[in-house]
Specification:
190 residues, binds fe (ii) ion, mainly alpha
Length: 190
């Protein structure tokens, strides 16, 4: 597991629990974007067979999460919303270098770090909700995100070696911590 440098403040969970409908709508978008990220690896790196099977499976699993969250949204009589600028992912995406291999390494590291924040936050939501189906759902997501952290880092290490990966992970964890510190509190995953 990756050690995040900045823990999520308790006020984030309060904001989410007080505006859970808004949180669900943002959460659905995050799952859909995660699925698209998985398929983007498949589209961009067809020459890296190591990536293909796990990334197709990852994209399907995230799409399944999207479907599950969408059903929660529909059951509450809510609607999906168009995407907005993501103040969390944008500065992290700018950290990704250009150049085919550097870009692949960085995108895998970025995937691992974003999933690690998801693990932390889904864990907080699961603990914060009253016991029941919804809390159990977030516990399941917590487990699944934890597997995803391992997946991204394993693929990165297999392709680029542990040393290169650790250096980039350390750099991105420091940046991600600063980004989280500066995030406005919103009923959103980030
Ligand atoms: Fe997910
Ligand atoms: Fe995930």
């Amino acid at each position: 597991m990756l050690a995040l440098t900045t823990p999520t403040p308790p006020a984030w969970l309060e904001t989410v629990l007080a505006n859970f409908d808004d949180f669900l709508i943002d959460h659905a978008a995050c799952e859909r974007k995660a699925s698209a990220t998985g398929m983007a690896f498949v589209v961009r790196y067809p020459d890296r067979p190591l990536l293909l099977e796990p990334m197709i499976a990852f994209a399907r699993e995230e799409l399944e999460h999207f479907h599950q969250v969408y059903r929660l949204i529909a059951a509450r009589g809510l609607s999906l919303r168009p995407d907005e600028k993501d103040p969390y992912v944008e500065p992290l995406a700018r950290w990704v270098r250009t150049g085919r291999d550097a870009r692949l390494l960085d995108r895998l590291v970025l995937g691992g770090v974003v999933e690690a924040r998801g693990v932390e936050r889904f864990g907080l939501v699961a603990e914060g909700l009253p016991a029941g189906e919804l809390a159990d759902f977030y516990k399941d997501l917590w487990r699944s995100e934890a597997r995803h952290v391992g997946l991204f880092l394993r693929l990165a290490r297999e392709l680029f070696g542990a040393e290169a990966v650790e250096a980039r992970v350390a750099e991105l964890l420091a940046l991600e911590g600063r980004v989280v510190q500066d995030l406005a509190l919103r009923p959103a995953l980030h």
